[in-house]
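Researcher: Next entry in the queue.
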Amino acid sequence: MLADYRQWSHLLVMTRGPYGCTVYFGDEERTFPSPKVPVIELTGAGDIFATAFLVRLHQTAGNPWEAARFANEIAAQSIQAAGLQAKMDKIKQNL
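Model: Structure for this entry, 95 residues:
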């Protein structure tokens, strides 16, 4: 199945929860570990990761490696708080 997805797209990101993510870009594959942080609430971490990845991809004119690093960091910050406002406050503190 992964091989099929890689053929369909030149950029594929597979999140791996507490293990970070793997980025497939063209013929390259790189794994980015997540920061080790205390977990308060996991809700929304995937959505926050995806948003952070796409924002940073745009900001860097398409650098998927920097986007993955940034998205892992932002998602890790989000799981250290409960509730949307607390998550956003935590992320803002660390930007």
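Model: The first strand starts at residue 11 and ends at 15.
Researcher: Noted, moving on.
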